[in-house]
Amino acid sequence: MNIAPGATVGALQAGLPLEPLENRILLCHVLGLTRVGLITGSERSLTAEEAERLSALVERRLNGEPIAYIVGTREFFGLPFQVGPAVLIPRPDTELIVELALERLTSLTPPARLLDMGTGSGAIAIAIAHTRPDAAVTALDVSEAALEVARANAAANAANVRFIRSDWFTALGDEMFDLIASNPPYIAAGDAHLAQGDLRFEPAGALTDGVDGLSALRTIVDGARGHLVAGGWLLLEHGYDQAEAVRGLLTDAGYADVQSWRDLGGIERVSGGRRG
C-alpha cells in the first residue's frame, strides 16, 4: 500500500484498510503520538519518510503479521512487554492465571516461592513479581531466545525474577515451590487454528506439543508434585475444550481441590489443584 506524503492524520484514521484500533496503533507508533495526541493532531500532515514507513507497516499487517510483532510491544496486566517472533504474544485470557496466583499468594508468608514454567516473554512471572515484590519468583523456558526477551521485560518493568533455562523440571534439582503456574503448549498437532490469524507467525513450539495437546500438561502435572510443598497449588492454562481432561489429569495424580476457572469470555481457561 502506498500512502502519499501530506496525508493528514485524521484522513488516515478513517481511510486505512485496517480495523480502527489497529489504525490508531500504527499511527501512534510511526508518529510517536499518544492516543490523545492523535486526536488533537488530526490535521497534522505526514512527511515523506513517515508516509513510507507507515505504508510498509500497513502492508505487513495486510499480509497477516500480528500487530504486536509489527510495533514490538503488547500490554499485559497493565505492563508493557517487548514481543517478537521468539515468544508468544501475551493475551488477556492469560491474566486469569496471574489473578489466581496472586489470590493464593496472599495467604502465604513472604517470601512465597513461585515458579512459572515455559515463561516465554515472561508475562506471568513479571506481572506477579511486579505486583508482589516480596515474592521469590522463578521462571524457566527451554528457549534461550525467549529468555533473552523475558530478561529484558523484567528489567524494563523493574521486576525481580530469576530466569533459568530448563526443559521443564530438568534443571531444578530438588527445589521446592509454594505455587507453580504454567501456560504450556496445548494446541494439538494439525489443529486448523495453527494456520489461521496471528498463530501463523508465533513460535510453533510454544503453541503445540506436536501431538494431542495434552503431553506438556501431563509432564507438568506429573512432575510438579516433586517440586510443590504440601498444600502448594498447581495452576495450568489450557485450551477451550480441555478443562475436563486437565481436571482428570490432576485428580489421577492425587491433587486435591481440583477445579477450573472461567475467563472473561466464559470459557474454562485455567484448571488447578493443591498438593495434598
TrEMBL record:
**Methyltransferase among the record's keywords?**
yes
Any idea which positions bind substrate? 183-186
Can you tell me which family this protein belongs to?
Belongs to the protein N5-glutamine methyltransferase family. PrmC subfamily.
Q: Biological process GO annotation list?
A: methylation
Q: Determine if Transcription regulation is one of this entry's keywords.
A: no
Q: Which domain of life is it from?
A: Bacteria
Any idea which positions bind S-adenosyl-L-methionine?
Answer: 118-122, 141, 168, 183
Q: Report the EC code(s) recorded for this entry.
A: 2.1.1.297
Name all Release factor glutamine methyltransferase N-terminal domain ranges: 13-72
Protein name (database record): Release factor glutamine methyltransferase
Q: Which reaction does it catalyse?
A: L-glutaminyl-[peptide chain release factor] + S-adenosyl-L-methionine = N(5)-methyl-L-glutaminyl-[peptide chain release factor] + S-adenosyl-L-homocysteine + H(+)
Q: Which GO terms describe its molecular function?
A: peptide chain release factor N(5)-glutamine methyltransferase activity
Q: Which organism is it from?
A: Massilia niabensis
Indicate the enzyme's highest-level EC class: transferase
- Name the keywords, alphabetized: Methyltransferase, S-adenosyl-L-methionine, Transferase
InterPro entries (alphabetical):
DNA_methylase_N6_adenine_CS, HemK-like, N5-glutamine_MTase, PrmC_N, RF_methyltr_PrmC, SAM-dependent_MTases_sf, Small_mtfrase_dom
Matching CDD domains, A to Z?
A: AdoMet_MTases
* Stated role: Methylates the class 1 translation termination release factors RF1/PrfA and RF2/PrfB on the glutamine residue of the universally conserved GGQ motif.
Q: Which gene encodes it?
A: prmC
Domain Methyltransferase small per the UniProt entry, residue ranges: 105-193
Provide the coiled-coil residue spans.
Answer: none
